[in-house]
Amino acid sequence: MDTRLLEILVCPLCKGPLDYRKHRSELVCKPCRLAYPVKDDIPVMLEGEARQMPADEE
């Protein structure tokens, strides 16, 4: 994942910062508890494609 792209991407819902989790290939918004998939190095920033994170997952 390009680090320059990571610097400008934000959560489409709350406009907050995202954390890249390389081991799961996803971008995580902690306040919204959503994990957006990264497929072939392309982030899929659609709420319908995001994984809802369980309360016990950080």
Automatic annotation (TrEMBL):
Gene3D superfamilies: 2.20.25.10. InterPro entries: Trm112-like. GO terms for cellular component: cytosol. HAMAP family: UPF0434. In the N-terminal section; belongs to the LpxK family. This is UPF0434 protein DENOEST_3237.
